[in-house]
Amino acid sequence: MKLRLAMVLALAAAMIGSASAETNLNGAGATFPNPIYQKWFSEYHNVHKDVQINYQSIGSGAGIQQVKAGTVDFGASDVPLNDEKLKTMPPVIQVPESAGPVCITYNLPELKEPLKLTGATLSGIYLGAVKNWHDPAIVKANPGVKLPDTAIAVVHRSDGSGTTGIFTTYLAAVNPEWAKKVGASISVNWPVGLGGKGSEGVTGVVKQTPGAIGYVELSYATQNHLPVALVENKAGKFVAPSAAGATAAIAAFQTELGQDVRQSIVDPPASAADAYPISGLTFLIIPKDGADRAKRQQLKDFVKYILTDGQQLSQGLDYSPLPSSLSSLDQNLLSQMTAAGAPLK
Predict the structure, then answer these.
(1) How far apart are CA 56 and CA 38, in angstroms?
(2) Which residues pair with 26 in a beta bridge?
(3) Model's pTM, two decimal places?
(4) Residue 20 confidence (pLDDT)
(5) How far is it, in rounded angstroms, from Cα 169 to Cα 264?
(6) C-alpha closest to that of 98 among 274, 230, 219, 15
(7) Is there a contact between 285 and 333 (Cβ–Cβ < 8 Å)?
(8) Which residues of 177-203 are buried (b: 16+ CB within 10 A; e: fewer)?
(9) What sign does the CA torsion over 274, 277, 278, 280 have?
(10) What are the Cα distances from residue 193, in Å, to 115, 154, 179, 214, 332?
(11) DSSP state letters, 222-278
(12) pLDDT at position 11 over 80
């Protein structure tokens, strides 16, 4: 009897010890990378059973605020913090970990082939200047295509969004009027349109609204069986959103990224003939210091996994793996992580 009791107590102690050894990492932010994040979390946990990673896909703006408040171990944003905004934050490291296209999706079931849009037309739609699907500018870009004579229902994000940041950065790059009147940010005063919360919200509004147009990550459009438009790049080529197109955009800015990983990759030069013009990097925002050394080391090890072995999982989910040069820069940035001021391994 005593032996059995001792064995039960030993087993209970082992279970308690095992539970207490588990590390919980909490993050929040961008919806853009959420599909690849969930894949990374799952694959990493399969190998590291003692690490549980929880992530709230609540938008870049909300994620940044949680990092600022110290309520998460890491945040995520599709638009990095500039020097001015960094002054309002605790010291952080910004690490680009994947890239992908922001695609233009629409609800025009009568179209039998992909819609083609120029940057001027797309920005005109979101300014409210291009109001009908039979507008001459749309007709010109789609010769031989029977376009409906119906109103365009513009859909945009209602929350602070890195996807919005990438999209509006593109619109500002291709249209001086947009740059002057609206600008580029994770949250803007939209001239027209209906708002949807998160990429899920935008996808839902587009699906339910005949004649709608919206912008979402490619994975959301694919999962919801929504068509995506071909967008004209600076080379004059209409390009479909794809991981390869985003990779070409990264390559076009390789020199600039070597100087500052926060470099935007929208609207690449004409020399990048296969680049998709509305592409963006997405970033982890990691506090430079923290009190819990074990947790900080686990976080660093996980991010190292993302930047190395985890990159091969990107393409199957419509994301672009980072070039080795950018991955190396990221790993150098991770060396700034500390715990209670002391370096990590």
Answers:
(1) 11
(2) 54
(3) 0.88
(4) 47
(5) 8
(6) 219
(7) no
(8) ebbeebebbbbbebeebbebbbbbbbb
(9) positive
(10) 20, 4, 18, 10, 42
(11) HHTT--B-EEE-TTS-EE---HHHHHHHHHHTHHHHHH-TT---SS--TT-TT--SS
(12) no
